[in-house]
Amino acid sequence: METRRPITEIQLKPGAHVHMMGICGTAMASLAGLLKDRGYHVTGSDQNVYPPMSTQLERIGIKIMEGYKRENLRQRPDLVIVGNVISRQYEEAQALLESDIPFTSLPSAMGQLVIDKRHSVVVSGTHGKTTTTSMMSWVLDQLGVKPGFMIGGIPKNFDQSYRVPEGDWFVIEGDEYDTAFFDKVPKFIHYRPRSVILTSVEFDHADIYRDLEHVKQAFLMLLKLVPENGLLVTAAGDANINDILNREKTHLSSGGRRVITFGIGQGDYSAKNVRATNSGAEFEVHRAGREVQKLSIRLIGDYNIKNALAAFALCENLGFETSKIARAIESFQGVKRRQEIIGKPNDITIIEDFAHHPTAVRQTIETVQSRYPKSRVFSVFEARSATSRRNVFQEEYAEALGVAHALIMPPAFNQSGIPEDQRFSSDRLIGDLRKKGVDANLVDTVDGIVGELKKKAKPGDVILIRSTGGFGGIYEKLLKELA
Fold it and tell me: How many structural domains compose the chain?
């Protein structure tokens, strides 16, 4: 069983049966849709499924087998694609390794079956990948190149997380997380980049990366993949990015490769004279010190201004017309679960967000609180990601959540697989926040959190909810109770 290896070259006949283990992951569900749209028979297994990916799969007619059971492989598939949520200890994984069924990882399947020889635009970085990938996909669509895409979320402009390419372009979210239990390299290694956006580099994914240097090594692998005449668009002023750029200076400065930077008030493409509007923000895009375009976006926050700059810079340097790029960016509506207003029951605004890294958590709180300056903003945070359930960012979360008007959170999600001395302490966090004067409360259950918010929130207030999962159905429960 231990010697079985994934196939290196995928060969599938039309209509072949592809089975996907861990199908409800954002990337896996997207690939499932891509393969189904190309005529393959797709099945999949998962556990603890939740929207929006479960509903997307249901809508396109892919049935989900509940649990990772041996019998899921009884109707022998022609290929199994294994998601990175799968451990070799799972019963279904053991059955696969004991069989002779060909198997591979999601990124390898993406590179071979979908991206192939197309112009691959890989959007990478610790923060902003999903929004920037969604924006790039929409902009290229509006520029007429009919790109395919795969995104770790659902863009509002498309209402699904994937599309089969009609032309020679593909846009993909380049995750640095590892590929599968049998392929421990970053996913983006398989994505055949021709153009790359790098938004930021920070320590994250403490379950697979030892420290910041280990993370940098992953992104160094990506920079090495920028081909001759390729393009790298990267954030200006990021010390970690500057470090890896310097290490790969020889490679990046040869073979016609170009490196373009962007930032607010700095970089080759700079946002200046930024001002908030009722719908988002307006600013001037300056290139080489001169204004080239006024730009407005329907999103809030400095990070979204940078996301728009990255998309603008990439497209202009690929030869597209400046005014058309601007019009496309201005019509981009955002991404579901990214600062998405999901309702206003009793004049209480409920916003759903995905932020989980301390940097993103703080930026999101500050952005929403500045957006609603006359409102009391209740921050609801679930420590659910692999990193947030560990104590590696214990102090950083206290700093990040310390800017909140008020915080309500449950205990960290399922820490059973984490050694006790490495577990994030919700009790300690609440204590640290109270010392800072923050109205912080630990509430054991989702129903309890809903009850607290029903008691405390008043018309005109804002509730900002952040989780990387379903959070026990809190969104629907809160909308119902507050109404």
Answer: 3
